[in-house]
Write a structure and sequence with these properties.
The complex is a heterodimer. Chain A has six helices and 15 strands. Chain A is of the alpha/beta class. Chain A folds into two domains: 79 residues; 126 residues, Pectate Lyase C-like (3 Solenoid), CATH 2.160.20. In chain A, strand 2, helix 1 and strand 3 form a beta-alpha-beta unit. The longest helix of chain A is centred in the first third of the chain and has 14 residues. Chain B has one domain: P-loop containing nucleotide triphosphate hydrolases (Rossmann fold, 3-Layer(aba) Sandwich). In chain B, helix 5 packs parallel to helix 6. The chains are: A alpha/beta, B alpha/beta. Chains A and B meet through loops of A and helix 7 of B. Chain B: InterPro entries: CobQ/CobB/MinD/ParA_Nub-bd_dom (IPR002586), MinD (IPR010223), MinD_FleN (IPR025501), P-loop_NTPase (IPR027417), ParA/MinD_ATPase (IPR050625).
Chain lengths: 225, 265
């Protein structure tokens, strides 16, 4: 090796190994040295039982392809498991998405037959969703009004998402990949505010005052800063 | 400058043409100068309902194509001095005209009339767009059936984006007895779901069928409850405060009461 600088620094902690990557060199050099270190040095450390790895990239942004390549290199040693890849930078797109996901969007309208409302993150609708109207959200859906149409919460796969409505009379409910048809699968004539959630992959309905028991950590774990 | 009102519903067969004819007639009864415009090109009906079919020489498409002047195409009603009809063409279809042409035509009519009532075809395609184009206000007709309410909801959604703004609602063909037994959607449920201002409720009445056969709008019939309903609607359009029709009375006629007393249905 002609490299004078140490691009990849490996440190041992009680939670496994931390790979600290130089953030100024080229990605090519970084991958080369990483491969070299994994293959040739530290034989005594890099074999034996499974070791969790944390990779710290500093101010370097990796595209999903580059990240995949990085994981491939680590995989050369079968006992290394990537626990997390930390970067201090994110794309603007991701930043916007994170912002949307951390706030509740408020909409005021009646979603009528043939109309559609889509949102990334949690959505609060002040109005009704009529039969034939659809409301989609990657997060949870709250309707302060009557939900008589279709609602799909966690439409990108979030199974923790819930659907709550002042009057829950939907034609169809979806959470993540689970679809339920209320009249066939559950009938509830209650006029109390209710919410739908997934329990062991099944659509369930309960009164709104049960949310804190069933989804205690859903909102608390979020970073609202 | 008059006001143009489009009568629409989305679904067919709920009574758009009947309502158009009767609102027009009822407004004429109140002494207003009214023009009825049949927007259903290719499937014209309004002339039949008004009993004016045999007087048609020119039509709406002829006016737009410049085949005749607007005044030549207007047919004067046989009963009222100030009620006119602009019939649709039967031999063309909805694509014969576009929204700009319709808008221009309605604008021209509004200068001569107090009210221009546009009878919209069923559906939400070109014919609907044309009919709505020139209107200042919209009336949505529905009947207490889920399919009709669904379509009305769709149309309201479309109208809210137009300059007509939020339309007003008429619930047609109500059968009080069935509603009372829970076999028909409740008026209140329909109003609640659609969430727009109610302009009137019209009971189902066999006399309406006879009226259309005779070409005499039911609004002129003073024995019919449906006729009263349409006259009330016209008064509300004029700004009067008239309470909604009490449907109950109809079922509780003297003979019915006697029958009920003896347990006869």
């Amino acid at each position: 090796m002609t490299t004078t600088k140490n691009i990849v620094t490996i440190k041992g902690t009680k939670d496994g190994l931390v790979f600290i990557m130089d953030e100024t060199c080229s990605l090519e050099d970084l991958f080369l040295q990483l491969k070299d270190k994994i293959e040739h040095s530290h034989q005594q450390i890099l074999s034996g039982p499974l070791i969790p790895i944390t990779i710290k990239l500093g101010h370097r942004y990796l595209t999903s392809e580059e990240e995949k390549e990085l994981r491939e290199i680590i995989k050369l040693k079968s006992n290394l498991v990537v626990k997390s890849i930390d970067s201090l930078v994110i794309t603007k797109e991701q930043a916007l998405l994170d912002k949307l996901m951390s706030t509740v969007r408020v909409e005021t309208k009646t979603v009528r037959s043939g109309q559609e409302l889509r949102h990334m993150g949690d959505l609060l609708l002040l109005g009704d969703v009529n039969p034939g109207g659809c409301i989609y959200s990657t997060g949870s859906i709250f309707v302060l009004g009557a939900l008589r149409g279709l609602a799909h919460a966690g439409c990108e796969g979030n199974e923790e998402a819930i659907i709550a409505a002042s009057l829950l009379r939907p034609t169809q409910l979806r959470i993540a990949h689970v679809i339920s048809r209320p009249p066939d699968e559950w009938i509830d004539g209650s006029n109390d505010m209710e919410f739908a959630y997934l329990e062991n992959g099944q659509m369930s309905i309960d009164k709104i005052n049960q949310v804190h028991k069933l989804r205690a950590n859903y909102w608390n774990k979020r970073d609202y800063t | 400058m008059g006001e143009a009102i489009v009568v629409t519903s989305g679904k067919g067969g709920v009574g758009k043409t009947t309502t158009s004819a009767n609102i027009g007639t009822a407004l004429a009864l109140q002494g207003k100068k009214v023009c009825l415009v049949d927007g259903d090109i290719g499937l014209r009906n309004l002339d039949v309902m008004m009993g004016l079919e045999n007087r048609i020489i020119y039509d709406l498409v002829d006016v737009i194509d410049g085949e005749c002047r607007l005044q030549q195409a207007l047919i004067k009603d046989k009963r009222f001095e100030h009620l006119f009809l602009l019939p649709a063409k039967q031999t063309k279809d909805k694509s014969a005209i576009n929204t700009e042409q319709m808008e221009g035509l309605i604008k021209e009519l509004k200068q001569d009339f107090d009210y221009v009532i546009i009878d919209c075809p069923a559906g939400i395609e070109q014919g609907f767009k044309n009919a709505v184009a020139g209107a200042d206000q919209a009336i949505v007709i529905t009947i207490p059936e889920p399919t009709a309410v669904r379509d009305a909801d769709r149309v309201i959604g479309l109208l809210e984006k137009e300059k007509t703004g939020s339309p007003k609602l008429i619930i047609n063909r109500i059968r009080y007895g069935m509603m009372k037994q829970g076999d028909m959607l409740e008026v209140d449920d329909v109003i609640q779901q659609l969430g727009i201002e109610i302009l009137g409720i019209v009971p189902d009445d066999e006399k309406v069928i006879k009226a259309s056969k005779d070409g005499e709008p039911i609004a002129m019939n003073h024995e019919s409850k449906a006729g009263l309903a349409y006259r009330n609607i016209a008064r509300r359009i004029l700004g009067d405060h008239v309470p909604l029709l009490n449907l109950e009375e109809k079922e509780g006629g003297f003979l019915k009461k006697v029958k009920k007393l003896f347990g006869i249905r």
